[in-house]
Amino acid sequence: MAGLTMTLQLLLGLSLLVFIHEMGHYLAARAFGIRVNKFYLFFDAWGFKLFSFKRGDTEFGVGWLPLGGYCQIAGMIDETQDESGLASEPQPWEYRSKPAWQRLIVLFAGIFLNFVTGVLILSALLLGGGFLSNEEVSRYGISPSVVGQEIGFERGDRILAVDGRRVVRFQDAQGANVLFGSEVTVLRGNDTITISVPRDTHQRVMDAGVQLFRAYKYPVIVLGSQEGSIGEQIGILPNDRILKINSEDIHSLANLQEVLSNLKNQDVEIIISRNSEAFPLNATLDNTGILGVFIHPNPRASEIFEITPYTALTALKFGTRDAISLLVANARGLGQVASGQVRATESLQGPIGIARFFGGTWDWTRFWYVTGILSLILAFMNFLPIPALDGGHIVFTLWEIITRRKPSDKFLMVTQQIGMVILLTLMVFVFGNDLLRIFR
Fold first, then answer.
1. Strands (E), 28-162
2. What pLDDT does residue 81 have?
3. CA torsion 223→225→231→236, rounded to 10°?
4. Staple 315 to which of 86, 126, 306, 347, CB 3.0 to 4.6 Å?
């Protein structure tokens, strides 16, 4: 049942985004008086389709093969038609008879609508919520993971900027744009230091299963106690929150470890909170200074930090910034895959891998979040300069504008075929990669 739910969410999300993408091409083409022969969601391969109807010069329909969709623009060589259909003289209502700048807008329209859709979805999801400000975290600084320590971060560092831009939201200091290589400026004591984050950091944190760093101040919530440990003996239970030890406030796991290490072989009073009531527990530490309790790795930041609510303006601002950061991270990541710095098998996802991001239950918030991300990825992928994609057509059109020489129909047809081979090869690879992940 979970697999069916994931599949349905993927189909719904991609169908919506493909429709929006092709609608961008359709609206731009019609605005310049270009005829659109067919507008299909899914492909009507070998002439089979679920249904169709005609309005004006355009046949609208739904095909049977759920691998995207297409907008067949009259007079354009693409995956829907070849040069044989362009043997006649160019007509005023055909794509090929229009000025290059108009054709360029038609090509960009689908990418643009996908980008705008992604921005609007991400911005809408921020409304009603809030963010942990970097200023709030900077009161106590950060606590780096093992990977963060290897790079050069230290406990208590205060994040100031990333690549010269002041950090407002704490999450922006540890996002994908940072993990693919950046310059992070921190305040350490009274010194301002710049730390270079290597380009392979994204792969390193994935391998280690950690974040680069986290806020130093976090609620210390118990998951459980080791059998026979001091924590179990004095009655510390799951979900208890450790507030104080000998009147000293406990505000993070690192802080707890530091305080306990200074109280070895001593009697201590531990103030805990249970069901919103605080009371003391007494213990005598041994020479290790360890309670033997497991601490929750990801407590809610709202339990100890003041959360800044989003307004309509800040939601749109940060939604746009998140979208741009994701596109930049994708470009950097693809570059690292191409250069061999990052393993393609762990970075590229196919339909099966994407479907798993939706989850096995239908959660509308998660659905729209993943759909927003997919909209941006679809915009990015279509912008790649590969023949058969919008990006390939854009490159040839820009070449025509710069050189004032239009590529021949034969050349466009050959490059189109090469592009389709590249895309089919990539599709086989990501499908196979998804299946390998499942078997592993």
1. 36-43, 49-55, 58-63, 65-73, 130-132, 142-144, 158-162
2. 63
3. 50
4. 126
Are the C-beta atoms of residues 97 and 76 closer than 8 Å to each other?
no
pLDDT band at 347 (very low <50, low <70, confident <90, very high): low
Q: Could you tell me the pTM of the whole model?
A: 0.77
Residues 6+ apart with CB under 8 A from 364: none
pLDDT at 60: 95
The arrangement of strands across the sheet holding 267-274 comes to 248-249, 241-245, 267-274, 277-284
With beta carbons less than 8 A apart as the criterion, state whether 303 and 285 touch.
no
Alpha carbons 388 and 102: distance in angstroms, whole number: 19
Tokens of 387: 């023949």
Amino acid identity of residue 64, one-letter, is: W
Residue 41: C-alpha distances to residues 16, 35, 69, 89, 226 (Å): 9, 18, 4, 30, 57
Range with lowest mean pLDDT among 58-62, 184-188, 311-315, 352-356: 352-356
Q: Which of 13, 2, 85 is nearest to 351 (CA)?
A: 13
